[in-house]
Amino acid sequence: MKNQFLKKTMALALAGAMTLSMAACGKDDAGSDSKADSQQSEQQESSAEDPGESAEENSQASGEEAPEEGGQAEAPQIEDTTIKIRVMNEFRNLDKVLAKYEEMTADDPVMSKIHPEFAWVAGGDYKDKLTTAMIGQEDFDLMFCGGWHGLSTFIQDGNFADLSSYFGNDAFPGLKNAFSEDFVQAMTSYIRQEDGSYQKGIYGINLATFYEDSRGFMYREDLRKKYDCAPITDEASLLEFVKTVQENEEGMIGVSLWNFFRLDSPWYSAKHDHVYTQDNVDVLGDQTWIWVGLSEDEKTVLNAVVPGDSPEEFAKMPAGYQDDFITAYIQDRTKWNPYLNPNRGGTDTVEKPAAIAYSALSEYESKVKTALETNPDEEYGFYVIEDAQRNMEPGAVVCDMVTNNWLVVPEWSEKTDAVMYFLDWMFGSQEAHDLFELGIEGEDWEAVGEDGYKKLDIDENLAYSMPTYSFTQNPTYIRVSEFVSENEEIKSRFDYMYDPSTYKLSPLAGFVFDTTNVETQIANVSALSNELQLTISMYDADEAAEKIQQWHTDAEAVGLEEIRAELISQIQAFLDAKNAN
Fold first, then answer.
1. pLDDT attached to residue 536
2. What 3-state class would DSSP assign to 13?
3. How many Cβ atoms sit within 10 Å of the Cβ of residue 182?
4. What is the DSSP letter of 391?
5. What are the tens digits of pLDDT across the range 110-144?
6. Cα(59)–Cα(54) distance, rounded to whole angstroms?
7. Measured between alpha carbons, how far is 58 from 163 in angstroms, rounded to an integer?
8. CA 514, CA 403: separation in Å to the nearest integer?
9. E strand or H helix at 523, and its extent?
10. Alpha-carbon Rg for the chain in angstroms
């Protein structure tokens, strides 16, 4: 039934029926950054059925007559269908949105037959409930699944339907418009088989408004002005500001430690030189990232290195990374130690107020509003950590282009076509997407300009809300809040983060490390890594180097080399499979 329905739909589409400077305090303000504007596009082979297959062939395969050329195609004949959807965390007043949906689709011969029914589960219980649903094959047709919920394992075990044929498919124009070729490629999973080969498919729909958050610091702009500090435009001016505040503001420290470890890291910049560390290869944890060096054509693994490796290991890496750059980075970062919480690493984890604190750009608004609730006279600015992103260079971010948030269709659902038709409709227009993202226009919200919105003053008992990260987010449909649209600098940062030309797809996108052969070794080395506490800067430069060397010696004794060999072998097999297509 599923395949027949899909083929019939494709026939209709093909017949024409269906139509994203060391700056010291006391100096004058300098000019602002400039934004580069460019577009990039990469070609990907379609995952849909053969586009050369005619409407007549499709209709013959499904047992239907082909529509006359130039005529109106007959709509698929389907029964009324209820699709059951589960999201993570509470939605409110969804009934009025569903009523509006039924009104908007009343005259559509397909959508009028598809009726979504929603349920939600609190985040704290979601993983257990999801696991139970998989074991019991519960009656759901579309579900949220977080990367931290075991997504890759569920995919590997065959729990989710392969949705490849729905993307890049003219029969589903909403999905084709909302999910670019790069995004579809990024969503593609490569499932490792018992013989080491890979099977390709799309087993989840990624939910995202951007492909990588801009990581940075929120800083006290009022204090910058108070002490006549230069604009914070680079690391030198940031450090000078931090130093000035700590020396002059009693009861304050310079830097809040949370997520401080990203500062000065070659996490982004090294990828432009074919050296990668990212979540899918960091099997030992944040204390000891593994860095993978690829050949210039990014088809061959040159080596994988960790801090403390021998010169022989680093010599195999790409040019510019042929010494222990990892330990050097950790040592260089110790210059910030005097401005961190002096009680870090102890039982007293409460920090004093800080001149700068880590914030992803997507979190900046909520963090500023929370701070202003306590101290309304404060002012804040945002500093992007990485140079190329701070300067808004195109192609600065090489990444997987996916987030941890996914929608999945259980493999046993018999309503996959109906589910994908519903998603095609929701992602098919700004109006449809706004409905499930924001609620009723004119009642819950109103548009501000072309890409902004404002929540209206409505009784909270009547207001619509949806955990958008678990159901609606998509990079084609962006609306920014009043807070963002009214701040020119912050708005430009969001525009850059939403711009597809900011990103390049990592060659390791889709790779998942199978730990089966080295589970014990990973557990042993990770335990040693967790003891290091490098990310909270517990040591001076010399101590850090000594700790790393001791860790490396101990890690070699419990399986580091086995892990390295297995990782290199699997990445090479993955690249071979990916490049063979």
1. 80
2. helix
3. 21
4. T
5. 999 999 999 999 999 999 999 999 999 999 999 99
6. 9
7. 19
8. 20
9. helix 519-530
10. 26
Beta strands in 317-437 (DSSP E): 354-360, 380-384, 397-399, 405-408
Nearest to 419 by CA among 73, 166, 146: 166
In tens, the pLDDT along 29-81 reads: 333 333 333 322 222 222 333 333 333 333 323 333 333 333 333 444 568 99
The CATH number that domain 80-211+402-489 falls under is 3.40.190.10
SS (H, E, C) 56-88: HHHHHHHCCCCCCCCCCCCCCCCCCEEEEEEEE
At which residue do the structure tokens 């195999």 appear?
A: 316
Q: Is pLDDT larger for residue 96 or for residue 402?
A: 96
Task: Give the distance between the most distant pair of CA atoms in the chain.
Answer: 82
Q: Is the pLDDT of residue 181 over 80?
A: yes
What are the b/e assignments for 52-87, b being 16+ CB within 10 Å? eeebeebbebbebebbeeeeebbbbebeebebbbbb
DSSP 352: P
Between 190 and 254, the more confident residue is 254
pLDDT in tens, 182-227: 899 999 998 888 887 888 999 999 999 999 999 999 999 999 999 9
Q: Is the pLDDT of residue 400 over 60?
A: yes
Q: Under a CB-based contact definition with an 8 Å cutoff, are residues 420 and 431 in contact?
A: no
Query: What's the distance, CA 576 to chain centroid?
Result: 25
Instruction: Sketch the domain layout of the chain as residue ranges.
Output: 80-211+402-489, 215-263+336-399, 274-333+508-580
Give the separation between CA 21 and CA 33, rounded to whole angstroms.
14
At 457 the three-state DSSP class reads coil
Structural contact between residues 62 and 8, judged by C-beta atoms closer than 8 angstroms: yes
Percent of residues, the chain, with pLDDT higher than 70: 86
Residue 531 sits at the vertex; the CA angle it makes with 527 and 536, to the nearest 5 degrees, is 130
Mean pLDDT for the chain?
A: 86
What is the pLDDT, as a whole number, of residue 208? Answer: 94
Place of tokens 């009680």: 343
Phi, psi of 116 (to 5 degrees): -75, 140
Three-state SS string over 102-155 comes to HHHCCCCCCHHHEEEEEEEECHHHHHHHHHHHHHHCCCCCEEEEEHHHCHHHHH
Single-letter amino acid, residue 185: Q
Does residue 73 contact residue 12 with C-beta atoms inside 8 Å? yes
| Short-list 153, 8, 121, 156, CA closest to 73 | 8
